[in-house]
Structure formats: structure tokens, C-alpha cells
């Protein structure tokens, strides 16, 4: 088991036992087309397969972790406390792109991180380092983009934030060594998943209510048409002999049940709030084409396959 490097909204650490309980007895390659923080992937430590995300900066981060872990760690060690004064040797030490005063180091780094959405030249290694730095020093560890694709989460309040995460980076790098990393639409998996493979889908959740939007992790969002495309793809993979497991919000129960999947409701606590008392439990579903009699023993799964 490897710990994820990033905090990520919608993470599945609390659903791991329920997800493993739906795993087939055996499978070949593992694919995760909506990766995010990758809680299941890093707990499973698959030997090979593919991961994908539509967020290009997140994908770049995992590529840098996989290919340049020591350089990434060195760059992270160069960063300063988020409350420090801005670095006068770098851009945005006095004002941001809109002319607003930059008061501390955190907001300067946030401006530097947002080079890509403003079509400015950027260094891939620095962008990856800044993603982790901001992730570990921003408010609640939240990743959120505005409609222009700019990361806009304010500074958090931490007594001793650890943004280097050297042990996690090295461990994650090893797990990713033989994994293909894509920055495409989730339907890419149609091209790579073969009979006997396992695909886990973890889409941005369909809202439980008009005010409960779980799709603000990127500027593009994930709407009704995307949910319908996802179901169609899951059905196609099922027809091709691919094992499929999918988690989603409770409002999607009927949709997958009517499509012939095995669907059950699970309670899960949202873990993106720094205050444990304010983490709400919401209904989630797990849908799969793996029949109960075809499922493996949760405690022995990894030993059988790896």
C-alpha cells in the first residue's frame, strides 16, 4: 500500500473495502480513466495498466513524479513558508496579473502556477512542484479552477505544513513506473482495455441537490451528457468482457440498475474538509458487472495477482 501524494476532493480511501469486495477473482491489466488523487490505484499498486485525467496539470504532476522524482523533491525543498514575504527575484512579487497586491509567498506561487491557463511559457517540473506545494498549503487542500482554468483557492492555515513529501513521491514513482499516463477524455480506455482487464471509473459526482456541485475540480465540469456517455462506455466494455467497477452519487442508482449492473448503496464521508466534525456523509453507489459469485477474496486479492 502506497499513500497518495495529493489531497483530492472525492477521494475513495473510505470506500476501499467496498470497492475491493467487488473485484473479480483475477484480472489482467488495471485502468483508471478518471484518476484524481488515485486512492484505489495506490492502495492496489497494480503491476501495469493505465491512468488518465482531463486536468493537464494533474497529469503532468504524475508524469514528473514517475520520471523525475529526485528533481521534483529538490524543487519542493526550495519553496518557503506560505506566510513569508514574496520572493523579489521572481515575477508577481508585488502584484498579480490583475494588479492586485501580493501580500505573501503563497499568492506569488499561485500566480506562477497559473502560467499554463494564461498561455504563458512554463516549466513542467516547476508546475508539478507548485501543484503539490499549493495542494499542501491552500485552504482545506482543495483543488478548484475558475472558468478560465486558473487555480483560485486561497491560502490555508497550517502550523507546520509539509509540502515536500519525499517518501510519498519516491513510493508513488515506483508504482507508476510501468503505468501509461494519459491526458484525454475518459473514452480512451476503449482503445486500451482488453478482455479480462479491470476498469475503475470514479467520475465527478452527479449533484445530490441543486446546490451540491461536485464537478468544480476543473473548468470543464462533468454534466448529464458525460454521465450518459460513461454509462454507454461501461456497457460496451461489459460486452467486450472487461471487468467494470464504478462509483457515483446515489442519484445514479436507477440509471445503472436499469442498465443491468449490480448496484448497491454505500455511505461515505467527504474528506476534503479540515474539520472532521463538518465532513458530511452522503449516499454513494458502487455499480459493477462483476457478479457476486465471480468476486475474489478481499484479503487475498493482491497475493493472487501480484
From TrEMBL:
<dbReference type="GO" id="GO:1904047">
    <property type="term" value="F:S-adenosyl-L-methionine binding"/>
</dbReference>
<protein>
    <recommendedName>
        <fullName>site-specific DNA-methyltransferase (adenine-specific)</fullName>
        <ecNumber>2.1.1.72</ecNumber>
    </recommendedName>
</protein>
<keyword id="KW-0489">Methyltransferase</keyword>
<dbReference type="InterPro" id="IPR012327">
    <property type="entry name" value="MeTrfase_D12"/>
</dbReference>
<dbReference type="InterPro" id="IPR029063">
    <property type="entry name" value="SAM-dependent_MTases_sf"/>
</dbReference>
<feature type="compositionally biased region" description="Basic and acidic residues">
    <location>
        <begin position="87"/>
        <end position="97"/>
    </location>
</feature>
<dbReference type="InterPro" id="IPR002052">
    <property type="entry name" value="DNA_methylase_N6_adenine_CS"/>
</dbReference>
<dbReference type="Pfam" id="PF02086">
    <property type="entry name" value="MethyltransfD12"/>
</dbReference>
<dbReference type="GO" id="GO:0006298">
    <property type="term" value="P:mismatch repair"/>
</dbReference>
<dbReference type="InterPro" id="IPR023095">
    <property type="entry name" value="Ade_MeTrfase_dom_2"/>
</dbReference>
<dbReference type="InterPro" id="IPR012263">
    <property type="entry name" value="M_m6A_EcoRV"/>
</dbReference>
<dbReference type="GO" id="GO:0009007">
    <property type="term" value="F:site-specific DNA-methyltransferase (adenine-specific) activity"/>
</dbReference>
<dbReference type="GO" id="GO:0009307">
    <property type="term" value="P:DNA restriction-modification system"/>
</dbReference>
<comment type="similarity">
    <text>Belongs to the N(4)/N(6)-methyltransferase family.</text>
</comment>
<dbReference type="GO" id="GO:0032259">
    <property type="term" value="P:methylation"/>
</dbReference>
<feature type="region of interest" description="Disordered">
    <location>
        <begin position="78"/>
        <end position="97"/>
    </location>
</feature>
<dbReference type="GO" id="GO:0043565">
    <property type="term" value="F:sequence-specific DNA binding"/>
</dbReference>
<keyword id="KW-0808">Transferase</keyword>
<keyword id="KW-0949">S-adenosyl-L-methionine</keyword>
